[in-house]
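Regression test case RT-17, inverse folding.

Input:
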């Protein structure tokens, strides 16, 4: 099984590869005015008013402190997988190139997405950490809760099956045994 260090090295090795995403995936995008000015400034790219923004993946690397992650984990009240926490500490809310629109979210933003877009209950039976549009726009990847923690296994959340019940096993499929394993596999398309 690939290690987290292997995943970190692979992410660093593709930092120069161009990502393309709609502006709305960025927290600093002005949704009311459809304005990407702040996003373009943060990414250090020329301003565009196009729907899609292109940028090197490494422009999204902005580490989050271990203390911030620990505070968010306490606020959520559920322990997070170690791979997820360490990747946030290394890279922050980073994006990966490719057609899946993978934009990893920090824990509190992931809770907001999980409860808003996925209607996950207040007990957080699952945590959606990124969009995942390989098979269908609108899907996500994330973890399923196992008692007081989220398990290490990474799942695809199928938005078309979500309405069939609150049990996440009814609308997810396992993608990998860990986030690190998933990232190594996903990034194998980039040599």
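Golden output:
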């Amino acid at each position: 099984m690939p290690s987290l260090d292997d995943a970190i090295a692979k992410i660093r090795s593709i930092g120069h590869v161009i990502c393309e995403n709609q502006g709305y995936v960025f927290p600093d995008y002005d949704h009311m005015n459809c304005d990407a000015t702040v996003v373009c400034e943060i990414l250090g790219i020329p301003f565009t008013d196009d729907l899609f923004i292109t940028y090197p993946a490494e422009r999204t690397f902005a580490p989050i402190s271990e203390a911030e992650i620990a505070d968010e984990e306490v606020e959520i009240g559920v322990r997070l997988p170690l791979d997820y926490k360490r990747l946030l500490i290394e890279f922050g809310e980073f994006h990966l190139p490719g057609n899946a629109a993978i934009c990893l979210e920090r824990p509190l933003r992931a809770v907001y997405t999980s409860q808003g877009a996925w209607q996950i209950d207040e007990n957080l039976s699952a945590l959606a950490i990124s969009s995942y549009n390989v098979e269908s726009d609108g899907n996500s990847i994330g973890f399923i809760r196992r008692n007081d923690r989220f398990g290490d296994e990474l799942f695809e959340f199928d938005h078309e099956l979500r309405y069939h019940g609150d049990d996440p096993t009814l609308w997810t499929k396992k993608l990998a045994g860990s986030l690190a394993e998933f990232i190594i596999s996903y990034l194998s398309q980039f040599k």
